[in-house]
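Cont'd.
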Amino acid sequence: MLSFDLMKSIKREGLVDLVASLCIKANLVLPKYQKEKLEWALENETSPLGKKLISQIIENYKIAEKTGLAICQDCGLAVVFLEAGRDVHLDFDIYEAIKDGVAKGYSEGHLRPSVLHSCVDRTNTKTNTPAIIHTQIVDGDKITLTVTPKGGGSENASRLAMLKPYEGKQGIVDFVVKTVRENGPSACPPVTVGIGFGGTIEECALLAKKALLAENRSEELGDMEKEILELCNNLGFGPAGLGGKISVLDVHILSTGCHIATMPVAVNIQCHAARKATGEI
Amino acid sequence: MKEHRLTTPLSKKSLANLACGDEVLITGTIYTARDAAHKAMLKMMQEGRELPFDPRGAIIYFAGPSPAPPGFPIGSCGPTTSSRMDPFTRTMFELGIAAQLGKGPRGQEVTKTLVDFGGVYLVALGGAGALLAKKVKKAKLLAFPELGPEAVYELEVEDFPAIVAIDSKGNNIFKR
């Protein structure tokens, strides 16, 4: 058994500050991967207006990086992926500390607080909390945090379906493409499509969200990702939904086992401001 | 496809010249309002009170800006999804507004309203809030401070870029 004094202790203050700085960084600096995707879109877009809009999207993130103005005024719900090393010892409530870090980051970074008390009490909490926190216990003595602000417009464009098993793989492809066709134009395209299938409804939705963090082709489902990407980029709504080839920047799938009676599929749409920042302590 | 310079308040004549797909640069005063502000304004009207601004010839911008960093009049300031404001649209045009500015497709009833009142629906580039904030010269909180970012702001803009998505004849860029 590991003795207590061999475990690494993490200070609350350090964790709060890390979360705050990740919230600010995510909202001001677009990840390298996303910048490369936008360059790809600029090269491959065929409509002159679409090309112009993509170049403005690129100009926008450069302005944000230089001035401290947020990439998008919708600074999102703060979705935080927490990877906690099993050898870390905490003498404080980490969820409360993350919440305090989000409040600090959104206030100090002049980021828009977009969180309401509830669906029915629609008063702003003014702190952009509660945050959404997903935890995974991993090896090691570190805590790794990824803050990925999620805007409301593209979240509204997302869908989940409990398909019938007989619908098969084609049923999944059809549902994803239908979701992108119907909801993509108002979700600030070119969008990224995160797909989760299998599990229960909550597991399936979480897989779709996690798929949005992926930067590589799935080993098992890479062909399906490419097939859906191509179908989506034949839909023609293009940048800002105003017509063009590049409606979707990329498609990522995560899958897990499912019940013999079910075929859950979740589609999480991400706008072109695909923001995230990762740090460890 | 033409480029127009628009100065607020907009006249009926300037609206009639705008065709679906045209690019416009707006200079003058525009007013922000999202879902909650529209709801609050509707309540004001039902109570017989005047709106926080003169709606005649006005452009309503569906936006909830970020707080202003030091040295800026406003924070990031791009459009929000317009279709959420569809149920309020006819009433706003009845009050005399000239145009709405937002992002994304609208419901069919909006096109009918625009044709009936000779109005237009403009779109700005969603997710380009930093770029659009640079076109805002001054910002003033006009009403509903309790709504935070959803309050009504008066924005003084210069060469604010937008595209005519639905014109006063009902031509719709999203239906092409």
